């Protein structure tokens, strides 16, 4: 592993070993430095399973930036029977903002409450006020006139990979959705994403969010950066 130094973080370029929490112990990470970043020496990092921070690593948090080529992303099969689920572009900016904020707030106050920092909540609020209101595009899954799923993001320049990408900022599926209906919503939203994106797809996932890590791994996404911080 090769080290590069910054004032607020230390960065290591990793080899070909699969990502694991044990990398933390192999890096020199001074107590006064906020972040530890792992990046590939070239291309993408290997990641076989969702990353877990538990046991001796339970006092760390972190996030993963994933990348995948649009044309390499597999699409799940649609159920072979009618489900009543339809997917369309959200044309109302107000509807997009309200659905995005309301579903994300549930996540922040529920599963993410223990792990998402005050600084991250402030950054999320700033994003909603300055970016969500005019730049984010989204697709929504509807059943019986009610939203049951959403995927949203925006085209942006990503310095980390020196190219433009469709950066996925939020994915939501109603937990009450089951079986073929859930499968139809997921497949329809991913089809929408593929049809409304450029050639590169990226996203950020909190490490504590195992479900979201698995979602992107199953679609062939691989990490281009893993950032750890002490909690």
| Secondary-structure-derived class | alpha+beta
The number of strands is 10
Shape estimate: globular
**Strand percent estimate:** 25-35%
Structure report:
This protein has two domains: 2-65, no CATH class; 71-220, Gcn5-related N-acetyltransferase (GNAT) (Aminopeptidase, 3-Layer(aba) Sandwich). It is globular and about 55 Å long. The protein is 27% helix and 34% strand. A hairpin with a 4-residue loop joins strand 7 (146-158) and strand 8. The longest helix is centred in the middle third of the chain and has 17 residues, at 93-109. By secondary structure, it is of the alpha+beta class. A ten-stranded mixed beta sheet has the order 1-2-3-10-4-9-8-7-6-5, with helices on both faces. The relative contact order is 0.23. The two termini are 24 Å apart.
Please give a handful of descriptors for the protein shown:
231 residues, alpha+beta, 2 domains, ten-stranded mixed sheet
How do the strands and helices of this protein lay out in sequence?
Blueprint (H helix, E strand, L loop, with lengths): L1 E4 L3 E6 L8 H4 L8 E6 L19 E10 L15 E5 L3 H17 L8 H15 L4 E7 L2 E13 L4 E11 L5 H17 L4 E7 L3 H9 L3 E9 L1
Parallel strand pairs: 2-3, 8-9
Antiparallel strand pairs: 1-2, 3-10, 4-9, 4-10, 5-6, 6-7, 7-8
């Amino acid at each position: 592993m090769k080290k590069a130094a910054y004032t607020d973080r230390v960065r290591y370029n990793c080899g070909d070993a699969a990502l694991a929490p044990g990398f933390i112990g192999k890096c020199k990470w001074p107590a006064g430095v906020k972040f530890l970043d792992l990046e590939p020496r070239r291309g993408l990092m290997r990641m076989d399973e969702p990353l877990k921070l538990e046991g001796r690593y339970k006092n760390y948090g972190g996030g993963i930036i994933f990348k995948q080529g649009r044309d390499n992303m597999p699409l799940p099969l649609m159920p072979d029977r009618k489900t009543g689920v339809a997917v369309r572009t959200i044309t109302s900016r107000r509807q997009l903002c309200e659905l995005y904020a309301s579903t994300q707030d549930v996540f922040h106050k529920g599963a993410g409450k223990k792990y998402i920092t005050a600084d991250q909540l402030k950054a999320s609020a700033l994003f909603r006020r300055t970016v969500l209101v005019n730049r984010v595009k989204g697709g929504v899954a509807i059943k019986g006139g009610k939203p049951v799923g959403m995927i949203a993001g925006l085209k942006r320049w990503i310095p980390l990979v020196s190219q433009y990408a469709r950066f996925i900022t939020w994915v939501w599926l109603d937990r009450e959705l089951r079986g073929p209906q859930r499968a139809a919503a997921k497949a329809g939203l991913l089809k929408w994403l593929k049809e409304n994106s450029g050639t590169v797809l990226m996203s950020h996932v909190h490490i504590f969010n195992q479900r979201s890590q698995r979602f992107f791994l199953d679609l062939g996404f691989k990490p281009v950066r893993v950032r750890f911080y002490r909690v």
